[in-house]
Amino acid sequence: MSRDLPSLNALRVFETAARLESVSQAAQVLHVTHGAVSRQIRTLEAELGVALFEKAGRGVQLTNAGRRLRDASREALDSLRTVCAEISQSQVSAPFLLACPGSLLARWFIPRLDRLNAELPALNLHLSASEGELDPRKPGVSATLLFAEPPWPADMQVYPLIAERIGPVFSPRYGRAASIAEQPPSALVNEPLLHTLSRPGAWADWARALGLEPQTLRQGQGFEHLYYLLEAALSGLGVAIAPELLVADDIANGRLLAPWGFTETSNQLALWSPSRQPQAQVRELANWLKVNL
């Protein structure tokens, strides 16, 4: 026995006309012409080899076969509508897992989390932080926010946000803060510089951008991750190298000083998402980030 179905569009049109018992009303509900509804019904009758409607005065009425098909198609279409609605709702309410560096989460994201949740209430954002290397292809991760250098991989949808800018920062509590703040950047050759093991070349990149010889810089205390490096700088332990985004709030409230400003690097902060994943919510988050960064 064949399991082939007749045209699903024709079945949908028939079910509407059968439910309303009117071709004209079905045309109005479906936003098509009376002739279009009639053609779909004739197509369905031809495929089934049986009449579904018959004349009744100035209108039509269902035949016995038509009533049977009406009941079956109504039940099937109602079931489909219910399942589609449930699937759609589950997608809306499913957690959107965003991975990002822990330092970015602590210093930029958390202070703005209330605003994000208020402005994107349907996102159902969950955050996963790491100070190690982030894997944007990790199963379960909806998107990853990270600094990286183009070109972007072909299997990822990448939304560039802003260029990275780095520069030296130190606390007013640092013992030599007053003496070095008024000097040119070359004054740092005499300072033991705080650095991070997760990005050992940051000081050298900054020095080259300013025309300084990287080998003249003296490395001081090292820290495994950027978050600890910035905490050390805030505690007055020395001069650290940091992305502007992560210290902008501390500079604005006077907790850190950045007398020489910040220098752009080849990295960009971007939102990464696997290309196979639906992108609507990712784009929504990317647009929000662009406005608020």
From TrEMBL:
PROSITE patterns: HTH_LYSR (PS50931)
HTH lysR-type domain ranges (all copies): 6-63
Keyword annotations from UniProtKB, A to Z: DNA-binding, Transcription, Transcription regulation
Entries under InterPro entries matching the protein: LysR-type_TF_proteobact-type, LysR_HTH_N, LysR_subst-bd, WH-like_DNA-bd_sf, WH_DNA-bd_sf
Superkingdom: Bacteria
Gene3D superfamilies: Periplasmic binding protein-like II (3.40.190.10), Winged helix-like DNA-binding domain superfamily/Winged helix DNA-binding domain (1.10.10.10)
A matching Pfam family: HTH_1
Alphabetized PANTHER family for the sequence: HTH-TYPE TRANSCRIPTIONAL REGULATOR, HTH-TYPE TRANSCRIPTIONAL REGULATOR TRPI
Family: Belongs to the LysR transcriptional regulatory family.
Name the record gives this protein: LysR family transcriptional regulator
Naturally occurring in which organism (per UniProt): Halopseudomonas salina
Name of the coding gene: trpI
